[in-house]
Design a protein that fits this description.
There is one protein chain. By secondary structure, the protein is α/β, with parallel strands linked by helices. It is elongated.
């Protein structure tokens, strides 16, 4: 074979190989000669720059820079500075590109070509914005959890907007002595709200006295509320007894399950509220009492008034500041926070270190909680005290909670049992793997992620990502 034919074949082969590299590269490639004229360019140029391959081949990058097609032109920068360059470039179509260009020199040191790699960062920048937004949400979530942890065991857990609104109302009513009526299903935490109001009020130095009007027989309820004098009835103590209303003097009286209060006692209670004084059973004298009244019920008092089962005047006296507490199923955002707080309190109380795995937490988040917060507390305590292992799995859940769990149900990442650190690490690892797949060097990864190259190296090692 003639030597010239062999050279032509080799040149043809090299040209085909180069064209193949340009077309198959995961980045968009442009190769110019030393003067900036485009010799090779990938077919993706039309998608990126709005110009066909035929329109750009043979054109000079300086002219294209003036036309704002490549702006700024990193190839032109390499031609001027004679060293590799990496910049962020925006196309006419609004795409954000990360562009790197490298000079190629002849053996005599003459610039003979510039190789330009472009990678579309539009999607990455959108992901970065979403990441930053998620990071901000996680930080907010962490601050809310810290605030929750600063509360005592009896504090109101508030993450949902409904409970945050109740928290704001608690702060407002705590500084005054207005009567408060707390409404809601059994187990939603009405007594917790009552205690929070007392704890934040000027009466916090006095007693918080609570009585469940539905748990005491009607014949005994009057003496429990108003007290009695010695010998006032058969079985009465020799020294008499102070009633809970007197005990709440200069403090707070909390009447739970108010809807169970008999009509006869409703009249006596109304008189005490109006006059701020009472008579013990068997006494002819009045005793002055100064207390803050908070009442709660799971019954519809308005309907009871219409039915003649509850005094309208008493209802109006009590319903000065109503607080409607939604059931737990209507505020799922609070479930994850409640799980954390209750589990922490149980671990502290019993000196344990119990943890919930992901599936267990997911099942708890999916459950409807007909018994509300009280049921959640009971379920967690049962698992904590009966489970031998520190890691509580879905097998330890009561059947009624476990039955409705579906692994396919999508769980909001903001409501998982992960700590903020764990959640951020998961996001960070995904970002590192995403960048590693698209960058050739750790320097390019650092440019893409907006961090230093040593940080990139450390994180690659941390997550065992080869580069």
């Amino acid at each position: 074979m003639h030597v010239y034919q062999q050279i032509e074949q080799e040149e043809s082969w090299l040209k085909q190989v180069l064209e193949g590299i340009v077309e198959t590269s995961r980045d968009h490639l442009i190769i110019t000669d030393g003067e900036g004229f485009i010799r090779l360019i990938g077919d993706s140029c039309e998608e990126m720059y709005g110009r066909s391959k035929e329109e750009l081949l043979g054109r000079n990058v300086i002219e294209l820079e003036e036309e704002k097609i490549f702006y700024p032109s990193v190839t032109h920068m390499v031609m001027q500075k004679r060293i590799p360059q990496t910049i962020l470039q925006e196309t006419r179509k609004g795409q954000q590109l990360m562009v790197s260009a490298y000079p190629i020199y002849s053996s005599e040191g003459k610039l003979i070509a510039v190789v330009n790699y472009s990678h579309d960062l539009t999607e990455i920048l959108e992901l970065k914005q979403r990441y930053e937004s998620m990071n901000q949400q996680l930080k907010q979530f962490e601050s809310e959890i810290v605030e929750l942890r600063e509360k005592s065991q009896d504090g109101v857990v508030a993450v949902s907007e409904a409970m945050l609104a109740i928290n704001r109302l608690i702060k407002k009513v705590s500084v005054v002595d207005s009567n408060v009526l707390i409404l809601g299903e059994s187990g939603v935490g009405k007594n917790v709200i009552a205690k929070d109001i007392h704890r934040n009020s000027r009466r916090s130095g006095g007693q918080f006295v609570e009585i469940n009007c539905g748990s005491i027989p009607e014949g005994l309820l009057e003496s429990e509320l108003f007290g009695y004098e010695a010998g006032s009835f058969t079985g009465a103590g020799k020294t008499g007894k102070q009633g809970i209303i007197e005990m709440a003097n200069e403090g707070t009286l909390f009447l739970d399950e108010l809807g169970e209060l008999p009509l006869t006692l409703q009249a006596k209670l109304l008189k005490v509220i109006q006059e701020k004084r009472l008579q013990r059973i068997g006494s002819t004298t009045y005793r002055e009492v100064d207390f803050r009244l908070i009442a709660a019920t799971n019954r519809n008092l308005e309907a009871m008034v219409k039915e003649g089962k509850f005094r309208q005047d008493l209802y109006f006296r009590l319903n000065v500041v109503p607080i409607q507490v939604p059931p737990l199923r209507e505020r799922p955002e609070d479930i994850a926070a409640l799980i954390r707080v209750v589990l922490r309190n149980l671990n502290e109380r019993y000196g344990l270190d119990k943890r919930l795995d992901g599936a267990t937490t997911a099942a708890l988040l999916q459950y409807d909680w007909p018994g509300n917060v009280r049921e959640l507390e009971n379920v967690l305590e049962r698992m904590v005290v009966t489970t031998d292992e520190d890691n509580i799995t879905i097998a330890h859940l009561p059947p009624e909670v476990r039955t409705g769990y579906s692994e396919q149900t999508e769980i909001d990442p903001m409501m998982t049992s992960f700590s903020l650190k764990e959640a951020l690490e998961q996001v960070e690892e995904k970002w590192m793997r995403y960048a590693e797949e698209r960058c050739r060097t750790t320097a390019e990864m650092a440019q893409m992620l907006g961090i230093s190259q040593p940080s990139v190296v450390r994180k690659l090692q941390k997550y065992q990502i080869r580069h």
